[in-house]
Amino acid sequence: MKTLLSQLKEAGYAIGLQGENIVLEFVGEGQPDAVVVEPLLTEVKARKAEMTRHLSDGHSHTTADIIEQAIGRAHAWADLGVICDDIDAAYRAGDIDQSAADELTILVRQRSREVPENDAALLEMPLSQFAQSGICREVKSTVLGESFLMAADNAEVPADTPLVVYRAAELQLLLGATPEKLQAVHQLKKAFDGEVVKE
């Protein structure tokens, strides 16, 4: 059972129990990968009774827990807007009480100070703030001639990304580099799946 739960979490799902119903909420980046998810969902259906028992033995996450996890994973104001709708819907459905809704709203407000309103705001964000933001964003570079993934030092990067990943700490080391040096570093990162470190 733990393996199935781990696989679901790796696929971007928060798992909970509401009454006798198993609740799976996709909180990952982008869209769920159907090739990965469909066999897992088939297994969940086949093992529903076992999974329900496991979750009801104290291993479940409440609706508030699931929403709180989504708040922590939010990377844009649009994500936070959807989460506000989720809080409202959960409150109206009776899945959370007023106190939980208020606490979650405070967390959304706090996260909104950490997350850029849009891509322009992201580019204006100080690198030190970006480093701890949990944000991971695709950037199209004219200098490199291709896209790369710009990720905070604490961001969860999709394991299956085909893009070269630059963490904030690496970007800090590359500030002021010439286009030629950036291109050379990029080619090395692509070839060796490497990391930029101090010289």
Number of domains: 2
Q: Give the count of helical stretches.
A: 10
Beta content comes to 5-15%
- Secondary-structure element sequence? HEEHHHHHHHEEEHH
Q: What percent of the residues sit in helical stretches (DSSP H or I)?
A: 55-70%
Shape verdict: globular
Rg is 20 Å
β-strand number: 5
- Give the uncertain stretches in residue-range form: none
SS content category: alpha+beta
Describe the protein.
- A hairpin with a 2-residue loop joins strand 1 (13-18) and strand 2 (21-26).
- Helix 4 (63-73) runs parallel beside helix 6.
- This protein has ten helices and five strands, in the order H-E-E-H-H-H-H-H-H-H-E-E-E-H-H.
- The strands form two sheets. It has a three-stranded mixed beta sheet with strand order 3-4-5.
- The mean pLDDT is 84.
- By secondary structure, it is α+β, with helices and mostly antiparallel strands.
- It has two domains: 2-114, no CATH class; 120-192, no CATH class.
Which descriptors apply to this entry?
about 200 residues; alpha+beta; 2 domains; 3-stranded mixed sheet; two-stranded antiparallel sheet; 10 helices; 5 strands; about 55% helix
Quick rundown:
By secondary structure, this protein is an alpha+beta fold.
